[in-house]
Amino acid sequence: MEPLIEVQGLHFRYDSGPEVLRGVNFRLFPGESVALLGPNGSGKTTFVLHLNGLLRGEGLVRVCGLPTRPEHLPSIRRKVGILFQDPDEQLFMPTVLEDAAFGPLNLGLDPPRALHAAQEALALTGMSAAWHKAPYHLSAGEKRRAALAGVLAMRPEILVLDEPTTYLDPPGRRELADLLRRLPQAKLVVTHDATFACATTTRAVFFREGRIESEGPTAELIRRLGWDERLPPAEPAP
């Protein structure tokens, strides 16, 4: 099986500063959901910004068989949908429906098809009833789902979610986890939330100082890292 994402020997530094990525190797296969774990500043977000060409370092980054060279970026950005940590960075149109339709229109869909794609995505994320609302009137959880609808309306093959539980209360985190499990796309989830990682991914990699230091099944890696104390206790057997 060919990987959807293949990264080999990726190095990157901002301007003349120290290296932020120091030889990252990674592959994501169709249907996989992978958690990207690690302390703040370990390179996780910098890494995922390479996957649709927002950043370009030294090394190989190939998405759906296409190297992230300028001539391939329009195609790659149709394939990789990124949900940023702060949904306010992605919600800027007057209404939720207009926001969800913005991406499809930018991809060249005519207005009726873009509207249909937006309505489908809002239904999928449970936001159909809020289509007429201004994004700034939404709760934190609703903003997250509205921003995700805007990503899904472009029908990407890969979803990248950067700290998606930020600002969410426990019910909001559970709703988002349930939604992600229903989505068919391959997923990369950058998170510090051990419970959320276990609920939404089957494999995890751990970043430290710009490198992938370890990887394995999500729950197993979390135990090895000593993060399992962040997990709720198991329910007793009936």
Count of DSSP helices?
Answer: 8
Mean of residue pLDDT values: 91
Counted beta strands: 10
What CATH architecture label applies?
3-Layer(aba) Sandwich
- The number of domains is 1
What is the N-to-C order of secondary-structure elements (H for helix, E for strand)?
EEEHEEHEHHHEHEHEEH
The largest beta-sheet arranges its strands as 6-7-8-3-9-10
Short overview:
With 238 residues, the protein is an alpha/beta fold.
Structure write-up:
The chain is of the alpha/beta class and 238 residues long. It has a single domain (5-230), classed as Rossmann fold, CATH 3.40.50. Helices cover 33% and strands 25% of the residues. It has helices at residues 44-48, 73-79, 96-106, 111-124, 140-152, 170-182, 194-200, 218-225; strands at residues 5-13, 19-28, 33-37, 58-63, 66-67, 80-83, 158-162, 186-190, 203-208, 211-217. The chain has a six-stranded mixed β-sheet with strand order 6-7-8-3-9-10. 40% of the residues are buried. Mean pLDDT is 91; it is low at 234-238.
